[in-house]
Amino acid sequence: MPSREPLSDDAIDDALADLDGWSHADDKLQKTYEFSDFREAISFIVRLSFYAEEMMHHPELENVYNTVSVALTTHDAGGTVTEMDVELAAKIEDLA
Fold first, then answer.
1. 29-39: average pLDDT
2. Are 85 and 58 in contact (CB under 8 A)?
3. Fewer Cβ atoms within 10 Å of its own Cβ: the N or the C terminal residue of the chain?
């Protein structure tokens, strides 16, 4: 299982190079996805929930009609970005 130790800013920047559209702000990895409609947005949330639950790592999610905003931080690490967040972001990218 990936580490829950905080990543340095340099390590986060390196990870973001492989995560198209993701950003780092407020100690979170963040991205907003846009879908064709509400049903597709909710389907995305349900699919990503299986990965999150499998990892025992749960994102902050916000849905408004056809958009889903995802924020990843590791609460066990004091609300900082860890390898867990990077791995879950990569899995989420595979779904989008």
1. 98
2. no
3. N
